[in-house]
Amino acid sequence: MKVVVAGKGGVGKTTLSGTLARALARQGRQVIALDADTNPMLGVSLGLGPEQTDLLLGVRQGLDTGETEHERSTEGFVERFGRDAPDGVRLVVASRIEHPDPGCPCCGVSPERLLRELERERQVVVGDLEAGVGTIRRLREGDADVVVLVVQPTAKSLDVARLALEVAEGKIAKVVVVANRVRDEDDLQLIAAALPGHDLWVVPDDPVIAQADRDGRAPLDAGAAAPGVRAVVALADRLAVTAV
Amino acid sequence: MRNLPHLAFAGKGGAGKSVLAATVARLLARDGEDVLALDTDPLLGLTRSLGAAVPQEAPLQAAAEQDEQGRWRLRPGIGTFEAVRRFATAAPEGVRLLQVGRSGREGPAAALPAAGAFNAVVHGIRDTPELATWSVVGDLSAGTRQTALGWAPYADRFVLVVEPTWQSILTARRIARIAGARGDVDVLLVVNKAADASDAARVQDAMGLRAAAVVPADDALREAERAGAALLDAAAEAASVRALHGLVATLRGSTVAGR
Lengths: 244, 259
Prior knowledge:
The structure holds two protein chains of two kinds. By secondary structure, chain A is of the alpha/beta class. Chain A has one domain (2-243): P-loop containing nucleotide triphosphate hydrolases (Rossmann fold), CATH 3.40.50.300. Chain A is built from twelve helices and eight strands. An eight-stranded mixed β-sheet of chain A has the order 3-4-2-5-1-6-7-8, sandwiched between helices. In chain A, strand 7 (174-182), helix 9 (185-194) and strand 8 (200-204) form a beta-alpha-beta unit. The radius of gyration of chain A is 17 Å and the shape is globular. The mean pLDDT of chain A is 94. Chain B is an alpha/beta fold. Helix content of chain B is 38%, strand content 18%. Chain B is built from ten helices and ten strands. In chain B, a hairpin with a 5-residue loop joins strand 5 and strand 6 (96-99). The longest helix of chain B is centred in the C-terminal third of the chain and has 15 residues, at 166-180. Classes of the chains: A alpha/beta, B alpha/beta. Chain A binds chain B through residues 8-11, 14, 37-39, 41, 44-45, 50, 53-54, 97-102, 105, 130-134, 137, 153-156, 159-160, 163, 166-167, 187, 190, 213-216, and chain B through 12-15, 18, 42-43, 45, 48, 103-105, 107-108, 141-145, 147-150, 164-167, 169-171, 173-174, 177-179, 181-182, 199, 225-228.
């Protein structure tokens, strides 16, 4: 199964992706967490810590060093450039922009390509996409099985979500809309009214997750019993059912 | 001399770049400055935060044509200032606004003309004498991409908007490194969504910078974002707005040599 996580910047994509990946791994699945943001942060929410996350090499940059010029298979990239994260998740960073004039940030090893070529039968891929709709636009039909579209109760995030739904239509079979940081019924109504016809997976606003983000920790390590964390773990369970 | 350094707001998604940039732009315009606001994000966060109408297509679309190599640029005869004068639209308080384009259902090809013209404008600003006395406030899309790809060549100063999370801090550090490599810009730290003094201290320590402003976590700002309203229209008296008045005063206290 291949899951991509999309939405406006700052809605909680990365925090959700890291938690989802680990929750799926705890079910006994082999999980690849693909950081498809050129400003990669998925390591933080997986629990590697800010410093370690800042040292991770992107596949694109790894290939640029030339030492692995013969490595061209996507599974080989995972082996060579990935690193292990808690609960047995394998984290792969597609590309990181670290210098001015970086050239094409993805040439040859775009997140779309990595996602497309990763094996889907015996593993789960969780792809944390860059903010906006650019990557979804470049995906081809069948590259991903599920898009988890994260929204929060703000007008801008709902506008991006509507656009993402249009762009994903016909390309990704299943859409799950996650209503994140929901404080009350009004928040939920705001989101439901903006996205009629979509079932919402509600993740309540949770001080434990907020504190984990402040501390640079994985929400699962900060408080697995917190309501927001439990809601994401339950989403992993539901996605697992989808995959069977 | 400039009245004020030309600014580019950058940071992690959701840090509050657009809201802060829009509010600063409007406060400057209210003070009588000529203000050019540059919405570099096709999701149009700055446009929305200014309280301006979201256009069907970027006005610069009409100013573009292809050169011999097929690249989009400003039509010959339209210089940078002419492009601002003719194509920038009016936003509240007299701010003049240009957009890179608009992310729509169509593919990226549809956005290329306006983006090419916008790119020509942002590269022309420093060499346009008429704009030397203007305030320029640009807003970059989330993350490091646009800083690295040179979408704010006009900027004398990058305003790093940082909330007290590690993801936001790491992003701002990366942006500061990338922008700093240009050699001719400085960076200014604004801490946003600070719950208390310790939040501000933590961010400043981690960034190794003193904050030019600390904007408090503010229910009024959250409410404005919820409603999709400009902060100044929704909550002119909010604590966050007071902090941004302070930021504008700080910006006024610093001038840079025109280039």
